[in-house]
Amino acid sequence: MRILLIEDDTLIGDGINIGLKKLGFTLDWFTDGQEGENALSLAPYDAVVLDLTLPKKDGLAILKSWRQAGHTTPVLILTARDAIEQRVAGLQSGADDYVCKPFALSELAARLQALIRRSHQKVVPELTFADISYNPETQEVKKSGQLIVLTTKETRLLELFLLNANKVLSRDLIQEKLYSWSDDVVSNTVDVYIHNLRKKLGNSVIKTVYGAGYALSQEKESS
């Protein structure tokens, strides 16, 4: 899943950036409030981690601007532990959740995963489709109860399909979800990962919708 991080503290930002990437998230990090605000419209982000004290434009102003413009992307704000008024103001301005500094990376990741699931109307932690199941906490993928070993990118691609079951995802959208602006991506990368998932989970799991993209569906492929 692709995350937008807006945090001007280099120590905190670097820890989040490195930590979430190790957990398989795709992440773009901005330290400038104005640039961070504009970035939300430039990529299909699944969630935002937003500090409230930023240069050029503070987090609350950014959040209010997003919500007034109709952006519904889940936003998790970072606040100081004793800043109760700041947390309340953030929630009243449209934030979906908050984490107090200092925080554990595992908590941040779990809260982001929960926000993303809720945004896709998935109320239970485990994602399932037909005989395939994925547990975001353990990162385990099973098919008919048997553990399937996937790479990090393959797991994130499967998660994307599970969150959007029966929806057609274009190649460009998949690529934007899996890679940040700083990543080098070759033209056939998405096709390679699709091929690998089919090989491990079965050729019939991911359908090709010709001229449109791919879908996790039990229907026959369209042409």
**Average pLDDT for all residues:** 90
Largest sheet report: 5 strands, parallel
Shape: globular
Q: State the low-pLDDT regions, or none.
A: none
- Strand residue content: 15-25%
Identify the CATH homologous superfamily of the largest domain.
Response regulator
Task: Provide the spatial order of strands within the biggest beta sheet.
Answer: 2-1-3-4-5
Per CATH, what is the topology of the largest domain?
Rossmann fold
Number of discrete helical segments: 8
Note the gap between the termini. Answer: 29 Å
What count of structural domains? 2
Q: Which oligomeric state applies?
A: single chain
Radius of gyration: 18 Å
Assigned CATH architecture of the largest domain:
3-Layer(aba) Sandwich
- Number of beta-strand segments: 11
Please estimate the helix content. Answer: 25-40%
Domain Response regulatory: 2-116
Domain OmpR/PhoB-type: 124-218
DNA-binding region: 124-218
InterPro entries: CheY-like_superfamily, OmpR/PhoB-type_DNA-bd, Sig_transdc_resp-reg_C-effctor, Sig_transdc_resp-reg_receiver, WalR-like, WH-like_DNA-bd_sf
Can you put this structure into words, describing what you see?
The protein has 223 residues and is α/β, with parallel strands linked by helices. The chain folds into two domains: 2-119, 3-Layer(aba) Sandwich (Rossmann fold); 127-216, Arc Repressor Mutant, subunit A, CATH 1.10.10. The protein has eight helices and eleven strands. It has helices at 10-22, 33-39, 59-68, 84-92, 105-119, 152-163, 171-178, 189-201; strands at residues 2-6, 26-30, 47-51, 75-80, 97-101, 127-129, 132-135, 140-143, 146-148, 206-209, 213-216. The strands form three sheets. Strands 2-1-3-4-5 form a five-stranded parallel sheet, sandwiched between helices. A four-stranded antiparallel sheet has the order 6-7-8-9, covered by helices on one side. The longest helix is centred in the middle third of the chain and has 15 residues, at 105-119. It starts with a strand and ends in a 7-residue tail after the last strand.
